[in-house]
Amino acid sequence: MKFRKLFSLSALAIFCYTNCHAQTTLAITLHLDHARASVSSNLYGLMTEEINHSYDGGLYGELIRNRIFKDSKTSPEGWSLVKDNAADTASIQLIAANEDHIPYDERGQAINGALSICLRLTVEKVSGKVGIANEGFWGIPVKPSTTYRASFYIKGSARTEPFRWPWEPKPTTPPLPDIENNTPGPVTVSIESNDGKTVYASGTINLEKSIYWKKYNLTLTTAADVQPTKDARFVISTNRLGVYYFNLVSLFPPTFNNQQNGFRTDLMQMLVDMKPKFLRFPGGNFLEGPMITDAFPWKTTLGPIENRPGHKGSWGYRASDGMGLLEFLEWTEDMGAEPVLAVYAGYSLQGDHIDAGPLLKPYVNDALDEIEYVTGNTTTYWGAKRAGDGHPEPFKLHYIEIGNEDWFDRSNSYDGRFKQFRDAIETKYPQLTCISTIPATQYPSMKVTGKQPAVVDEHYYRNSWDMWEHASQYDNYDRNGPKIFVGEWATREGAPTTNLNAALGDAAWMTGMERNSDIVIMSCYAPLFVNVNTATSTAPKAWQWDSDLIGYNALNSYGSPSYYVQKLFSHYLGDKIVPATVENIPVQNRPLSKKDSADGIQPKTVPTIFYSATMNDTTGTIYLKVVNTIAKKQTIKINLDGVAKVSPKATIVVIKNDKPTDTNTISEPEKIVPVTSTVNGLKKTFRQSFPPYSVTVMQIQTR
């Protein structure tokens, strides 16, 4: 293509060092009459997995930590005994249906196979309030005039000795007391301060006589004058003697679109505001699991939460699976996006794998079932299941990713595994496109052989210097090769969320993807979420990965500078790529490591300005993006070539700060945010200054 070479920053730029004294004019010429290549309609999306408490303690609305008591086999993590009077006698203990140390006549307390462990509260002496408290995910959020939905299963002891043969030993533990007088009575449910001195909301239920696993529901509403806080706990308490068993204890605040098993409103709104075109789920490592048996079990994530046992996650904590397959799909629907469904392909994180052939076939069939659940009409088995779960309409689906990061599989089994999955999927669903997780450009010895994959998934986690150095890597990619899905990428600087310098690296990288969005058809930053809480005496640090996009605690949330860059690039995007030529882009020396210096390696130079331009072919609106990565203002001569007229007024949106290491936090959530202004006096040729350490979008009208 005639103008293909115009995309490259390096091929046509005439470089000078930023500290040179020669006066040269930095110029960008946009060839608007050659804007023919289309921008991918799915260029910017989201990637998600359960890491950093992205779901439990994050997007998923549930406020109770360890709601079915399976997070630990030895202690009820997140739960504690509370009592008004230290002289009262009470205790709590996990009761598992299959544990030998549990008295025989207490086994079999499971509600069902999913709810196989419960919490026993024994009250033997009481003069005030005694109960169980949940600390939530680093706190329970309290807001004024807010109604919470609480529910739990409870069983009274109503205990009788089981039948024993004469030769069987009697239990060594003393008999447990029945609920006082075995009569109905009150149980109080409350949200209160951690010291119990302030009650923010409360309600009461009356237990029935001799209850056996009855579910109770109630609402708790805070007063209008309540001060917001995250330093609260959820308590179920009584003032009566007895033994109480609890399971599936739940507390939901108002959720996005008032969904029953829904999402946290502030986090969902931040995602909707990004205007993503797709959501890649469920991972990521969360798809694969540490072992094959820990892979994302989509079938047990369906239906009522009472039927979801949860499973071992990939980042050091258990997943409740309240965020199941249907919730992921409804998440895409809420954002106006489409799913990019990743299916488990027979490789897990600790190296276990299943070779192609008969042993892999059940996993292939499982993927076909999953696709049927997503896309099948109600006459199909899994389509009918979806309808029974409350969503009769099929979901749109165009892309299936076969596995995740299979270059870690040193057995080189992916070639055969991918082909077996692709053949089965394309035979039954020819309209779907399968994505390979091994790009030949990165892992040529492990690439898929034979029929070329239509799309490959490339992952990049780099520092800002790497991003600046490689921002033009797609300028010279083979246009006859597979399309590119950059399914995970980030500039990793700043913790727990990114700083401005990382955002400058992100923006530079994104200009390269935009200039080449005829081949880079999809991209998504990762990780998306991070719970920013540090370790406490009862809970570990919430996050496992630094440099994340959106941060939050139980009460508040904020976007990192990188979040605002993502939002900016998504909002200001045309449908045609505008080719450009550049002149005299300054460069800077990349710092050398001590080892490189000792080895005599010469420093590399990287540009200090990065750019991309797209155009709305219908309206003639130009979106010019410019990234200035250095500490001084840079002025660029901009030529609009091949256009009849230019509006003298343009809109400018800028993200900037004096210190590239500055960032947003819970306490300063808007320290670095986009600022919008207008400029006047534009012509076909004009000069525009770009501030130090800045990302700028110019919206220019040409018709």
TrEMBL record:
<feature type="signal peptide">
    <location>
        <begin position="1"/>
        <end position="22"/>
    </location>
</feature>
<dbReference type="InterPro" id="IPR017853">
    <property type="entry name" value="GH"/>
</dbReference>
<dbReference type="InterPro" id="IPR051563">
    <property type="entry name" value="Glycosyl_Hydrolase_51"/>
</dbReference>
<dbReference type="GO" id="GO:0046556">
    <property type="term" value="F:alpha-L-arabinofuranosidase activity"/>
</dbReference>
<feature type="domain" description="Alpha-L-arabinofuranosidase C-terminal">
    <location>
        <begin position="487"/>
        <end position="694"/>
    </location>
</feature>
<dbReference type="InterPro" id="IPR013780">
    <property type="entry name" value="Glyco_hydro_b"/>
</dbReference>
<dbReference type="GO" id="GO:0046373">
    <property type="term" value="P:L-arabinose metabolic process"/>
</dbReference>
<keyword id="KW-0378">Hydrolase</keyword>
<keyword id="KW-0732">Signal</keyword>
<dbReference type="InterPro" id="IPR055235">
    <property type="entry name" value="ASD1_cat"/>
</dbReference>
<dbReference type="Pfam" id="PF06964">
    <property type="entry name" value="Alpha-L-AF_C"/>
</dbReference>
<keyword id="KW-0325">Glycoprotein</keyword>
<dbReference type="Pfam" id="PF22848">
    <property type="entry name" value="ASD1_dom"/>
</dbReference>
<comment type="similarity">
    <text>Belongs to the glycosyl hydrolase 51 family.</text>
</comment>
<dbReference type="InterPro" id="IPR010720">
    <property type="entry name" value="Alpha-L-AF_C"/>
</dbReference>
<protein>
    <recommendedName>
        <fullName>non-reducing end alpha-L-arabinofuranosidase</fullName>
        <ecNumber>3.2.1.55</ecNumber>
    </recommendedName>
</protein>
